[in-house]
Amino acid sequence: MELLEKFTDTLSDAKEMFLDAVSDGREHLCDYFNEETTVTRKTIATICIICGLIGIIYGFLIAPAKKRIQVNVNNNTNDYEED
Q1: Each residue of 51-78: b (16+ CB within 10 Å) or e?
Q2: What is the number of other CB atoms lying within 10 angstroms of the CB of residue 42?
Q3: Residues 71, 72, 75, 78: is their CA dihedral positive or negative?
Q4: Is the pLDDT of residue 83 over 70?
Q5: Distance CA 81, CA 13 (A)
């Protein structure tokens, strides 16, 4: 019983720490976009984030092509068509 209580306490502490971190991150992000800075700084940051996300998506799309993954379905026969 004591082990279960420690486990639930640990989980609740982890949940609180995670929610605090998300809240702080959101607060810092809102402060960044609300502060009076030049437009170029915000524009460059936004472009960098968008380019990074596009790069991640593109990387996942071409990853199978880089490894030359080929799936052949031949119903467990050894008959291959010659090219």
Answers
A1: eeeeeeeeeeeeeeeeeeeeeeeeeeee
A2: 13
A3: negative
A4: no
A5: 61
What's the pLDDT score for residue 68? 60
Alpha-carbon span 71 to 30, nearest angstrom = 47
Could you give the angle at the alpha carbon of 67 between the alpha carbons of 62 and 71, nearest 5°?
A: 95
Q: What is the pLDDT of residues 45-74, one digit of tens each?
A: 889 999 999 999 888 887 765 556 566 666
What are residue 44's phi and psi, to 5 degrees? -65, -40
Confidence at residue 76, expressed as pLDDT on a 0 to 100 scale: 62
